[in-house]
Amino acid sequence: VSELLRRRELLTDLPPETELCALLPRIIRDSERPDLERCLRVLLANGVKSVLCGNIGHAAMAKALDLQVRGDFGLNCFNSYSLDVLRQAGFLSATASFELRISQIRDLKKPLPVELIAYGRLPLMVTENCIIKNRTGSCSCREACDPGSDGQARNQACGSCSRSGNAPRNPGPC
User: Under 8 Å CB-to-CB from 46, ≥6 apart: which residues?
Assistant: First the structure.
């Protein structure tokens, strides 16, 4: 959401058939909701029609703003029943749990389109505070995640720090 707001030219420089989907923060505190709703209204007015939602509680907020909702990995869609519950809740699509094998995803009944994470550094958790800052006294997540000369990031504890917390990722891509 914040990246799209900072770079609004992205919203106008794309072909008209391009659909943008804003990624909601994994954690939204009650005190942050009014600002986030304001940001989402701006994005909606600029052509963003859907959000990627990793928390079922955030879906109602998005739907109240007339945004379409797509399910992210945080919903842990592990079986056909969970996919059907999301369909009934009005989700357009859902990301299968990244713990499923391809054969298990293939065998799911798919009452709505199912997406998958095929490659990348998987998030391990979300923490309230920056892990690096708690240990060293200052946040250096951006530097810690810079890739080495061979292009491989080396710090498992690095993640994207934000007001919504820290999201450490697996050290190697899956």
Answer: 8, 11, 12
Spatial strand order of the sheet with 91-95 comes to 21-23, 50-53, 68-71, 91-95, 114-115
Say which amino acid occupies 47.
Answer: G
Model confidence pLDDT, tens digit, residues 78-122: 999 999 999 999 999 999 998 999 999 999 999 999 999 887 777
Q: Distances from the Cα of 38 to the Cαs of 23, 44, 45, 49, 124, in angstroms?
A: 15, 10, 11, 15, 30
Position 7 pLDDT exceeds 90: no
| Predicted confidence band of residue 153 (pLDDT cuts 50, 70, 90) | very low
Buried b (16+ CB within 10 A) or exposed e, 41-74: eebbeeebebbbbbbeebbebbbeeebbbbbbbb
Tokens representing residue 12 in the block:
């106008």
- Residues 135 and 89: beta-carbon distance below 8 Å: no
Q: What is the pLDDT of residue 69?
A: 98
pTM of the entire predicted model:
0.75
d(C-alpha 43, C-alpha 36), whole Å: 10
